[in-house]
């Protein structure tokens, strides 16, 4: 499906009709969100003892699906969402108790730079996400660099955002808490491989 571009993070209609095609929103389509939830089920299957899931937030589709599936499978699991401080979309929506569109977004984490979210995602996040925290972009960059240098993981800044929240202790946790961090997306985002 060809999309002509975006406006305020929302896909526009195709420029020309496509026979038999359908426009699927990249993060606010029920089937897409449900599909993203299978990630939580895989984590729970592989590591049944996990207590907390940490997920980066852009438009909210990934965390909405992961949180819903995780809470349905194990109601007591904790889900923590993480946004870059320069684009606190869902954090702001949650603080205000409604969907808003951010006027200014200044972040080095473009994959997470959705100015707003959609009703489907917001409702699922409100219902299933326990906490949303913010991390500074400098910390995200350092975390991506460390992941490469110390573990050989080429993660992009979106994935590094979730990992940074754990490494910087952006949320309260026990020293022995079993935490799974969703590291989706690979790339180098300016990380030097030299």
TrEMBL record:
One of its GO terms (molecular function) is L-serine ammonia-lyase activity. Residues 20-185 form the Tryptophan synthase beta chain-like PALP domain. InterPro entries: Ser/Thr_Dehydratase, TrpB-like_PALP, TrpB-like_PALP_sf. Its cofactor is pyridoxal 5'-phosphate. Keywords: Lyase, Pyridoxal phosphate. Pfam families: PALP. It comes from the Bacteria. One of its GO terms (biological process) is isoleucine biosynthetic process. PANTHER family: L-THREONINE DEHYDRATASE CATABOLIC TDCB (PTHR48078:SF6), THREONINE DEHYDRATASE, MITOCHONDRIAL-RELATED (PTHR48078). This is Phenylserine dehydratase. It comes from Paracidovorax wautersii.
């Amino acid at each position: 499906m060809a999309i002509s571009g975006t406006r305020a993070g929302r896909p526009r209609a195709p420029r020309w009709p496509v026979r038999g095609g359908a426009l699927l929103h990249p993060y606010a389509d029920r089937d897409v969100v449900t599909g993203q939830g299978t990630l939580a089920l895989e984590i729970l299957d592989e590591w049944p003892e996990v207590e907390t899931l940490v997920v980066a937030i852009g438009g909210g589709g990934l965390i909405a699906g992961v949180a819903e599936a995780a809470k349905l499978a194990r109601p007591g699991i904790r889900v923590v969402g993480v946004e870059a401080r320069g684009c606190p979309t869902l954090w702001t929506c949650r603080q205000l108790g409604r969907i808003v569109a951010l006027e200014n977004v200044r972040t080095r984490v473009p994959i997470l730079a959705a100015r707003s979210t959609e009703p489907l995602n917001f409702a699922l996040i409100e219902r299933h996400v326990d906490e949303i925290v913010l991390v500074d972009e400098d910390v995200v960059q350092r975390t991506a660099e460390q992941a490469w240098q110390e573990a050989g993981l080429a993660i992009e800044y979106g994935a590094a955002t979730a990992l940074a929240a754990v490494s910087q202790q952006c949320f309260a946790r026990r020293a022995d808490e079993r935490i799974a961090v969703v590291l989706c997306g690979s790339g180098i985002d300016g990380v030097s491989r030299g």
